[in-house]
Amino acid sequence: MLSLSMESTRIVIDTSVFVSALIGPTGPARLLLTQCFEGKYKPLFGNTLFCEYESVTTRKDIVAQCPLNQEEILDLLSALMSISQWITIYYLWRPNLQDEADNHLIELAIAGNARLIATNNVKDFKNTQLLFPQLSILTPEQIIKQE
After folding, report:
1. Which position has the higher pLDDT, 7 or 3?
2. CA 128, CA 103: separation in Å to the nearest integer?
3. Between residues 123 and 14, which one has the greater pLDDT?
4. Can you list the pairs that 1-5 forms with residues at least 24 positions away whose Cβ atoms lie under 8 Å?
5. Using only C-alpha atoms, what is the Rg of the chain?
6. How far apart are CA 22 and CA 76, in angstroms?
7. End-to-end CA separation in angstroms for the chain
8. Strand, coil or helix: what is 10?
9. String of DSSP letters for 18-72
10. At CA 14, angle to CA 38 and CA 98, rounded to 5?
């Protein structure tokens, strides 16, 4: 049981990790989500990330690969939201990542004082114009191994 005096590590979970947890019956992405539900990590959400999650959970190709039905997927998303903290982003850093669509993840992490971004696409976060030394961008597997 997690002590009430301990604060959970703040984390931004990229959509790719959520999809991996949905599709794979086991694995680091699913374990990372489980650890969020156990209180080890405090997921952060903002408007853009929530819209991404909402979009992928309704894609037919994702739903077809998932052992959960649409209602169960929405229940899981709802449960994840219930343990997450909503962050409003007031300042756009624009670290100018290779994939412009990933910039919001860094902005969310900085606005929410997160220490981690969990993603399956670590290489997409290389060669940024802005560096944030307090922020680690790791795969779920790397996060699990560093425990």
Report:
1. 7
2. 10
3. 14
4. 2/38, 2/39, 2/40
5. 15
6. 9
7. 16
8. strand
9. HHHHHH-SSSHHHHHHHHHHTTSEEEEE-HHHHHHHHHHTT-HHHHHH-SS-HHH
10. 155
